[in-house]
Structures are given as structure tokens and as C-alpha cells.
Specification:
Layout (H helix, E strand, L loop, with lengths): L3 E6 L5 H15 L2 E8 L2 H6 L9 H32 L3 E2 L10 E8 L2 H10 L3 E4 L12 H8 L4 E3 L11 E5 L4 H9 L1 H4 L4 E7 L6 H12 L5 E6 L6 H11 L2 E7 L14 H8 L4 E4 L1
Parallel strand pairs: 1-2, 1-5, 2-4, 3-4, 5-6, 7-8, 7-10, 8-9, 10-11
Antiparallel strand pairs: 6-11
Helix pairs in contact: 9-10
């Protein structure tokens, strides 16, 4: 089951699509949303702002004052948007389980060692919803890859647009790998609530149609009726085909396994993981 969803809060405009995606996931599951804003100490913020080290005298003081005020502004913006979002979406705020099968939310804010704290909260959650890097905060650009390798739970990468629902068609990209198997297993609570589930293998992945049928049979034991599609050929890479197929099928969510032994290594279906992390136009459910 997916009952706790971690929602990192940046305090920037990108929060809108992340919040909406998290809610679209939480509603059919009756899940709890833990909103987490990570603040930076002044020394951390300065270390992540290369221009600061080149500021002499009064310019250094001004730069540090700017970083301090920016941190306060992002914190205030994040909490205000959380409160407004919960009010507009009629979400009750609770820090402990109530036993009710409905969406609830909580707010947390921590400072110092932000990546370590984020990974810790992620390991204590069933799912994490994150936005793509837009250089609006001081977190590393490869944060999603770091989480995939470290948190031990699935991640949903929100698209730039805000979905109203993710319960329509779900496309699951399949490759004969442990990563794809783990991602599919973790997505079962969502697949059960989808109107349509389609298993897709890109030809360069090497799976045979009877393999897809075996995976569909596995899902059938969970009460999930899945169609299967074997598409493409070696003339067109999966990095281009999989998002195209998902769009043609009007998918609300794409499920894939994230493969790699390091943040910059080769991804599942060749290079598709990195492309989906950076550019997919629909939410992507991914697990390493």
C-alpha cells in the first residue's frame, strides 16, 4: 500500500505542479501528504553560490544578506502555499494517523545537510513526489538521480503542468530487469485504480511478446487487466519512442524502472531514464 507521500517544498513557482500531482496520487489511496521544506544555513548557501567567494568587502556582506533574506522568503512562501493548498483542496492537517481513509497533510521544516535530511524522510515514506530541476533553489541538479539510488522507495517526477487526476490510462514500460520488476510491483496500488493499464516494451529492450503476456498474467492475479504492446524497432531509440507511445495512448502516468549504478550511468531502455527525468511531458513513476 501507498499511505505516506513525501512532498518536498521549494518555495518557488514549481511547487504548484508538485502539489497537484501529489494530491492526484493521494486521493484514490486516501494517503497522507508530508510537505517538507529544507532550509540552508548561511554557510551552506554561500558554499553553493560560487559568486559569493569572489565578493570583496561590502559586496560579500550584501551577498550574504541576500542569501539570508532569500532563505526566509522561500520558507514563508512554501508554508503559505501549503496552507492555501490544503484549504483550497479541503485537506485536513494532522501530524499523526487518524484512521480515516481520506487525504491528510502535515508540514515540516528542517535545516542543515538538506540532501541527507531529504533522503532520510524519503526512506520513511512510501512514495516521493518531486519536481524537475529549474535552478530555482540551491539543491543539486542531479537530486532526482541521488534519490533514486538512495531512498529505497518509488519516486514520481511531476510534469510542469498540474494534473487533475492520474487514474485514467497508466502505461508501464517493461524491460527484463529487476528495476522494471520493482517499479511495477511498487505501482500496483495505482494500477489497481487505473481505468486502463498498458504494458509496453520497446523493441530494443529485447523482451518477447510472450514475456509481456507473463507480466500481464502476474498483474491479473492482483485483479489488474493489462493490455500489452510491443512497439518500435532498432531504427528509432526508446528515448524517443516511449514518451511518444505514452502520448499516443493518452497516458496520465508512465511507470518505468530506473537503472544505474551511479547518478550519471546508463539508464533503462538505453538512455530513457535520464530523458524522462529531464523532459517527460507527463508524470513519471520510477524506482531503482
Amino acid at each position: 500500500m501507498i499511505k505516506t507521500i513525501l512532498v518536498p517544498v521549494s518555495g518557488t513557482h514549481t511547487d504548484a505542479s508538485v502539489f497537484a500531482t501529489a494530491l492526484a496520487l493521494a486521493r484514490p489511496l486516501g494517503a497522507h501528504l508530508e510537505f517538507l521544506h529544507l532550509r540552508f544555513t548561511l554557510s551552506e548557501a554561500a558554499a553553493r553560490s560560487p559568486h559569493v567567494s569572489f565578493c570583496p568587502g561590502a559586496a560579500l556582506t550584501n551577498a550574504l544578506d541576500f542569501l539570508s533574506e532569500r532563505d526566509k522568503t522561500l520558507s514563508a512562501n512554501g508554508k503559505r502555499r501549503f496552507q492555501e493548498f490544503c484549504q483550497a483542496s479541503e485537506i485536513s492537517i494532522h501530524s499523526a494517523p487518524t484512521g480515516a481513509e481520506q487525504v491528510s497533510a502535515s508540514w515540516a521544516e528542517e535545516a542543515d545537510f538538506p540532501e541527507k535530511r531529504l533522503s532520510g524522510h524519503a526512506r520513511h515514506s512510501d512514495l516521493v513526489v518531486v519536481g524537475r530541476a529549474h535552478n530555482n533553489d540551491l539543491m543539486p541538479n542531479n537530486l532526482i538521480e541521488m534519490l533514486l539510488l538512495d531512498c529505497g522507495c518509488p519516486i514520481v517526477i511531476a510534469a510542469d503542468s498540474s494534473p487533475a487526476s492520474l487514474g485514467g490510462t497508466i502505461v508501464a514500460g517493461w524491460k527484463e530487469s529487476s528495476e522494471a520488476a520493482r517499479a511495477l510491483a511498487a505501482a500496483i496500488p495505482l494500477l489497481k485504480r487505473a481505468r486502463r493499464v498498458i504494458l509496453v516494451n520497446i523493441a530494443e529492450g529485447g523482451a518477447k511478446p510472450d514475456t509481456l503476456e507473463a507480466v500481464a498474467t502476474r498483474l491479473a492475479w492482483h485483479g489488474i487487466v493489462a493490455d500489452t504492446r510491443q512497439v518500435g524497432d532498432s531504427s528509432k531509440p526508446a528515448v524517443a519512442l516511449l514518451p511518444q507511445v505514452a502520448a499516443e495512448l493518452q497516458a496520465a502516468l508512465l511507470v518505468v524502472g530506473g537503472f544505474g549504478h551511479g547518478p550519471l550511468r546508463e539508464s533503462v531502455f538505453g538512455g530513457v531514464t535520464r530523458a524522462l527525468i529531464e523532459h517527460a511531458e507527463l508524470p513519471v513513476f520510477m524506482m531503482h
